[in-house]
C-alpha cells in the first residue's frame, strides 16, 4: 500500500534486512517498542496489527488463569463433617446470622467425607469445598484420622481444615495443628458466642484470605 519493500522498511526502522526477515517469518518476536515504531512508520494505529484477532480468547484467558481474582463471586463452599444432628442444626443456625454467603454440604462420617473429596465431580457432581470444618468425634474413623488422610492425599492436602470440637484437650489441639489443621475452635454452649465465632471464621476464609479457584 505504501510501495515500501522489506529493505526500505528495515532501513527506516534502523536495523538490517536480515533482522527484518526474522520478524517477517516469526523467528524473532516483535517487542512493544518495535511495534509502535512499525505503526508510526506505516502510519497506522497499533491495533491495525491485531485486526481480526480475538485477544480475549487467545491471550486474555491465559492471563486470567495466572492472576489472583480480587473479588469472590461465589458463596464460600463449606464441607461440614459432623456426626451430631443437633450440632449440624446449631451450625446452620449460626451460619444464617453471618453476613457472608456460604453453602454448606454436610457429611456425617469420615469414610463418606473422604469418598466425596476424592470423587466429588464424577460421583457427586460437585466442586471441592473451599474449607472443611471437621469434628473430632466421628463414628468408626475419627476426625483426627480423617485429617491425616486429607493431608496425605495429593488432591486434598491443600484444603484448609478447621477443627470444630467439644474437646478441651491440649493434646487434641496440638495434634490437630501437627497434622496440618488450619485452626482449632471449641464449640460454645452459648449461641451468641457460637454465632460470633463462626461469623469470624466464615468472613476470614471468604474475604480476608485468597483461596484456590476449584
Overview of the molecule:
The protein is 45% helix and 12% strand. With 214 residues, it is α/β, with parallel strands linked by helices. Strand 4 (161-165), helix 8 and strand 5 (183-186) form a beta-alpha-beta unit. The longest helix has 18 residues, at 191-208.
Coarse structural class: alpha/beta
Q: Can you write the helix and strand succession as a string?
A: HHHHEHEHEHEHEH
Low-confidence runs: none
* Shape summary: elongated
Helical content stands at 40-55%
Number of helices: 9
Q: What is the subunit arrangement here?
A: single chain
Q: Beta fraction of the residues?
A: 5-15%
Mean pLDDT: 86
The N- and C-terminal alpha carbons lie at a distance of 51 Å
Radius of gyration: 28 Å
| Main sheet characteristics | 5 strands, parallel
- Order of strands, widest sheet: 2-1-3-4-5
Q: Give me the count of strands.
A: 5
